[in-house]
Automatic annotation (TrEMBL):
This is Orotate phosphoribosyltransferase. Pathway: Pyrimidine metabolism; UMP biosynthesis via de novo pathway; UMP from orotate: step 1/2. It holds the Pfam family Pribosyltran. 5-phospho-alpha-D-ribose 1-diphosphate binds at residues 95-96, 99, 101, 121-129.
């Protein structure tokens, strides 16, 4: 099996939780994909980085990140997966709101102004979180080249409607789930 198949197995085994839940979008579902169980797992996290780098191999960007908390381990996995290949890839964190103390930055990490960046998320239903990050990145002067997620729960249309290329490593159908 390759990285893509191995990561799908981790998602199916560790992240898919059955039971009534309320999603961040406010929608209710009979199951939940808790990708932090995968993105923070010692064996699965490296796969996340490699799979998403492969998914976006033809996009030019030199920094990756998104809205905290879902995007943070995804971006770090990509940063670490890129390093052994000689690729210089920085990561950043977009806060939900600017800090009222310290440097009062909304985007933490290396400067994104004037850079081509990739916005990521672990999973997205409406696109709200990743589009919030995109807005903050654009306000900071970054050029957002696209959006990539591990699992798409339906956000693709909203992201594309905002004028951004969108890719997902897995769909719900890939995981045997029905929306």
């Amino acid at each position: 099996m390759g990285d893509h198949d191995d990561l799908r197995k981790f998602i199916a085994d560790l992240a898919v939780v059955h039971g009534r839940v309320v999603l961040s979008s406010g929608r209710e579902a009979d199951w939940y994909v808790d990708l932090r169980r995968v993105t923070l797992h010692h064996q699965a996290a490296p796969l996340v980085g490699r799979v998403l780098l492969d998914l976006t191999h033809d996009w030019e960007y030199d920094a990756v990140g998104g809205l905290t908390l879902g995007a943070d381990p995804v971006a770090l996995s990509m940063l670490h997966a890129a390093a052994p290949t000689g690729r210089a890839l920085d990561a950043f964190v977009v806060r939900k709101a600017g800090k009222a103390h310290g440097l009062q930055r909304r985007i933490e990490g290396p400067e994104v102004a004037g850079r081509r960046v990739l916005a990521v998320e672990d999973t997205s239903t409406t696109g709200g979180s990743v589009l919030t990050a995109v807005e903050a990145l654009r306000e900071a002067g970054a050029e957002v080249v696209g959006v990539a997620v591990i699992v798409d729960r339906g956000a693709g249309d909203a992201v594309r409607a905002a004028g951004l290329p969108y890719r997902a490593a897995y769909t719900l159908a890939d995981l045997g789930l029905v929306a």
